[in-house]
Amino acid sequence: MTDASEPRPSGAAPVVSDTRTVARAVVYSPDLDGEADPGEIVWTWVPFEEDHTRGKDRPVLVVGRDPRDREPDHLLGLMLSSKPYHADDPEWLPIGVGTWDDENRPSFVRLDRTLLVVADRIRREGAILDRQRFDAVARELRAHYGWS
Question: 48: number of CA atoms within 13 Å, CB side?
Fold first, then answer.
């Protein structure tokens, strides 16, 4: 078996928090302008839960911005996975297929673990998640995690 993990890249790594502790306003404002915006699926290095010094590049749904006025800009994101075993986990919401996955596999978004990502650590834009699917994520964040 090959180890697909990568050591943490230089620079600021995402800060991982329980979604309930970072409850914010969820925002939908995608714009494929080269900057990551809420409603877009982007790629960044995400630390593993069991070892935050290791992780891998993965898709992340941007759901908002850190409201604290600070530089550089920080985004709030939820990681995605295409692993089918997440289908039975209540902390994961199915969002279907999209252009962010080259193999066109169904994806799931993790709701209970929010990433605070420095905007300049985003590697590339992946896609815009359509409003209907984004609203399903927002409903879950509002109903179960205290977001507004």
Answer: 12
